[in-house]
User: Which sequence fits this backbone?
């Protein structure tokens, strides 16, 4: 564990979720960094922790599916270019 205060940990979590939401919109690269994967996982985790939301598991799955689709769509031109060489 780090010596960060509870307030600092909460701030870091909020920042990770902000980064994760941005990545959901643009997708992950073919070789994502660990920090990017953790940020996206934090978004899914926060969705799963929504106590009053009966659809939280389904919504978390939708987030993951959107990430996959966005990542594949973003990587498709790169993969196509590499296969032509």
Assistant:
């Amino acid at each position: 564990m780090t010596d960060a205060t509870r307030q600092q940990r909460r701030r870091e979590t909020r920042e990770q979720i902000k980064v994760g939401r941005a990545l959901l919109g643009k997708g992950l690269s073919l070789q994502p960094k660990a920090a990017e994967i953790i940020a996206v996982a934090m978004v899914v985790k926060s969705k799963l922790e929504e106590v009053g939301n009966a659809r939280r598991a389904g919504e978390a799955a939708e987030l993951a599916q959107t990430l996959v689709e966005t990542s594949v769509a973003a990587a498709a031109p790169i993969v196509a270019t590499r296969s032509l060489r």
